[in-house]
């Protein structure tokens, strides 16, 4: 597969941005954004789709850590 040219990259990024906006507006309910998901997958190389999906999850996690902080899970209680 050859690298996308400038217009193909722009189409991919625009599709990604529209999908992410839809997901943000609909509380991350993917079924509400199927049209945008389809456009995103058709306008971007498969590897980019995978990367951007992981990137979105990471950015959401990072924002959560910045606002709520880290809360370690409680392990099993040790008998005293």
UniProtKB/TrEMBL annotation:
Which InterPro entries does this entry report, sorted A to Z? COA6, COX6B-like, CX6/COA6-like_sf
Q: What organism does the UniProt record list as the source?
A: Pagothenia borchgrevinki (Bald rockcod)
Give compartment(s). Mitochondrion
Give UniProt keywords alphabetically. Answer: Disulfide bond, Mitochondrion
Return any one Pfam family short name: COX6B
Domain of life of the organism encoding this protein? Eukaryota
The answer to whether the entry has keyword Disulfide bond is: yes
Organism taxonomic ancestry: Eukaryota, Metazoa, Chordata, Craniata, Vertebrata
UniProt cross-references to PROSITE patterns, sorted A to Z:
CHCH
| The name this protein goes by in its record | Cytochrome c oxidase assembly factor 6 homolog
tRNA-binding recorded as keyword: no
The terms describing its cellular component in GO are: mitochondrion
């Amino acid at each position: 597969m050859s690298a996308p040219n400038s217009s193909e990259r722009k189409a991919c990024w625009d599709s990604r941005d529209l999908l992410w906006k839809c997901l943000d507006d609909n509380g991350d309910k993917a079924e509400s954004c199927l049209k945008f998901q389809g456009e995103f997958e058709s306008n971007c190389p498969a590897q980019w789709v995978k990367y951007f999906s992981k990137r979105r999850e990471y950015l959401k996690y990072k924002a959560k850590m910045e606002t709520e902080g880290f809360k370690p899970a409680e392990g099993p209680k040790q008998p005293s």
